[in-house]
What does this fold into?
Amino acid sequence: MGKIIKRKSSRWHVITSYRKIILILAVLAAAPLAFAAPSFLLQSHIPPGQVKRAVVVPSCDPMSTTTQPFPVGAGAVQFNCSGGPAFSTTSGTSTPTFTGYPVCPVTVTSPCYVTFGYVPSGDTTSCATTTGSGYQALIDGTPVTFTGTGSWDYCGVYDSPAAGGTLPGFTIIWSQ
It folds into this structure.
């Protein structure tokens, strides 16, 4: 008589259906990790962002004036860099912040600025009259939009008492 050989059943058939489902889900969940693991070993290169050019570029510090000494009473003074522009601009928006800016009170007891702005470099007429298209007033914290490139001088309209005095300095910082 021959021997009955029992065929061994595979382990796959031995595992219950519930365990098969858990095993399949575990394999599917681990598959993305197997493919992603090599990317951790690779070096990555992230290109830098676009470099933003400054809109306002000062030409010198400190600036000189076109009028010295200042006449007693009201007037205008133009600030530049020894005959060159006080600052140059490219297209864009920038915001001036004044620090130590002496605003004129109702009763002027010492020299102060009535208004402060900028004019095209070398344009002494617009600064003296603060009228026309040449003079542009600056307001602390208010953005200014420049179109195209330009070269500019600062222009301060001042007032001083009959005794005269010296206009105090202050700082302008442009943020892009």
About this structure: The chain is about 20% helix and 30% strand.
